[in-house]
Amino acid sequence: MLAILLTFALSATVSVALSIWATSRSQHRALVIEVAARQRTLAERYVNDVLLARAGARADPAKTAATLAESARALLDGGTAPAVDGDDDAAEIPASASGEVRAQLRQDLRLVRDLTATGAALLAQRPVATLELRAHERITTADPVERLRILAALTANVSLNASRTIATRADHDIGALITAQVVLGAAGLLTSLLLAWALIAATRRQTAHFRSLVTSSTDLVLVFGAGGCRYVSDSVIEMVGRPCADLLGLGFFALVHVDDRAAVEAVSRNGEVRELLFRMSNRFEEWRHLEARVTDLRQDRHVRGIVFNARDVTERVRLEEQLTRQAFHDGLTALPNRALFRDRLDQALSRARRSNEALAVLLIDLDGFKQVNDSLGHDAGDQLLQEVAVRFGAVLRPSDTLARFGGDEFALLLEGANKSRAVGVARRLLDCLQAPVALTGRELVLSASIGIVLQVGGDTESEELVRHADVAMYAAKEAGRGRSEVFRYDMTRELGEQLGLEHELRLGLQRGEFSVHYQPEIVLETGAVVRVEALLRWVSPTRGSVGPAQFIPTAERNGLIHQLGAFILAEACRQTVDWRSRGLLPDSFVTWVNLSGRQLSTGGVPDLVRGALQAAGLPPRYLGLEVTETAIVVDGPAGDRARAELQELHEEGVRIAIDDFGTGFSSLGQLRRFPVDVIKVDRSFIQGVEHDAKDAAITANLVSLAHALGLVAVAEGIESDGQLASLRELGCDLAQGYLFARPGPAEEVGRALLASRRAAGSTEHLRASA
Amino acid sequence: MAAASDRRPLRFVSVRERDFSIHTARRIVSGDVRLSVANEGPDAHELIVVRSIVRRLPLRRDGMTVDEEALKPEILGTLEPGEPRTRRTLELHLAPGRYELLCNMSGHYLGGMHRELVVR
Fold first, then answer.
1. H-assigned helices in A479-592
2. Out of A136, A153, A168, closest to residue B64 by CB
3. What's the pTM value of the predicted model, to 2 decimals?
4. Which ipTM score applies to this complex?
């Protein structure tokens, strides 16, 4: 279009310029023609003036001659043609450019000179025949007047012909100008037509190109007008699998998801420019997510509508949903994860603050899950967690948020719950675990420890609430597991103490604050020392001397028991070898080391024991391991493995004792099959043996049982002579207690061993040693 | 214009006109001729071929031009005034005799533009 306008403009400009130039030139030529034609009149006037002057009449032939000459010069070289009295004004004329015209004007000038010279000679009565004629005239007459008239005729003739030539040239020029104008106009018109044709062709090609792009594009193109959908691209028809007519008008909106329909209708009406995400049913009646860019082209005369350029982003949306789900859900149980729980708790807290309603957070930790994982494997552990998640979900309301924080830790958000409801829900959760869970052919009974925290209004942060629930859960575990505890602020202090103790335990191990004390055990009949029990002792720089009862439970919980167990085992073996090398010990002397239930359940005890024996160079028969009754009666693979490991060590010569015997529930059958050498009657029975008939009877039975099984019976915690006497009467073999010796360092015990050895004098009393 | 009366070949005769003279061959052979007339200017000139019957051709009353009416029977051919630097042709049948070639523009004949042509 621009090219067409430029062509028209150029054509018009050239045409106008040509016209102006030609008009100006025509004006000049008209002056020249007028002056040239005037020469004829002047020549004739000059003849008359000469004849009048010769006759004595008033005439001024000289002036006429001068006018003739000046006009001839002006015609030839340009300049001012003088005015002629009673006729024309002076005229400014340009020099003639044409060679032909200039030749005629030069001839005119020569003839004028010949004419005026002849006239002057005639007036001066000089002979004219002798005058030189410059214009090549070959006049033969001798009559001066006739000669003058002939020259005037020749002058008039040539000037007239010059003006005709100029006029003819002007006519030719005008013709050429007209031709040029016609050609120019025709060329401009033709060029414009060609450009217009090219423009139309290009537009058609472009339109076809865009139409092809729109129709073949996988993008969905829709145009909306006042009456609804006005245009749909082929890709839309292909996607929905319906004829175009079904989609036009309001038909399109029927295929849009009902939740998105209002937004799509609004945007298609008001043309608000935005990105729009909506769902639409496809030919298989699946919901597809479409992302549309909306463009308001109602003011565009080519469109006059609101255009949706949409594309199917279903896969992307699904991936985003999946990623979001992965980011906020636990992959194993499909429950919300910690992040989502935290988000919902934040929202719940906001609502609670506004409405002043209560909410509760429960933190649930499965008891003994680690043992299940260790003994049955992680797959079984995962199955167990999935089963627990299902059971928990079955006793909760849909509005409650159950999440898995990781490991065996679950969290529960109860909105609008008071203390009684929270405790009730905790009870239901614990109850639902009562039914055995079948795993790898076994049936497990689970329990859990639940911490409950309640919040009514206030500005408590979610993080603090979860921390409080954690403290309460910890308290539930401390209180015996399989129960729930509601958070109290003093729990924080207790927990702080626990955490402090754990920290100091770790530091103590690093700083070498632990040592091993030994408590002798004597033969009741002779008083000879025949064995010692190695006891761990911790002297903390801040807590002073800390007894095992204070820190062993903590060490078992946080796993430090393994390092401590390895330490005491290695130290006891080394010390025994030292005593033995110094000849302080009889051959049957055994050093006993306690093995914790955690060590047994974890496994790997034989390797640990063998390592310590080899490192110290101690034969296995000089080492005894004390295990609690509860540790060896565990059901399942972990218990089986523990018993197998002890059996393995026993077969290698290591002695085995059951500690705190009588407090557990081991059956006689188990006791008979278990590789036991010694049973140690729990101190709780010994303390009452002197005055309590029941304790005395139990102790008597336990001693009898030991003897019946061929085992050695050891009484723990003897503190009085009365207890000693009673035990002697009951036939107990060995005794241990403050009455004989407190636990002491190796040097002190070494001295006692030396004294005992001297007093005994022989080893015959060591019968009771296992 | 005179038409050719016999079948002899056409002869070319060059004629040059200029201010104020006519140049051509003085004698030519009779028959059909084609006069090739070149006007060398600077003024426009015509050419009239007239059978010469008198020594001086009669003039019109203006005293400046030959009286063509009076000579009409004797005029064999005429070329109207031609622009300078143009060439024209005039075909004639010239019988033996004397002819006058002249330009009858005002004053040109008296100014010297005439030439006698003898045809044998």
1. 489-511, 548-558, 560-581
2. A153
3. 0.42
4. 0.89
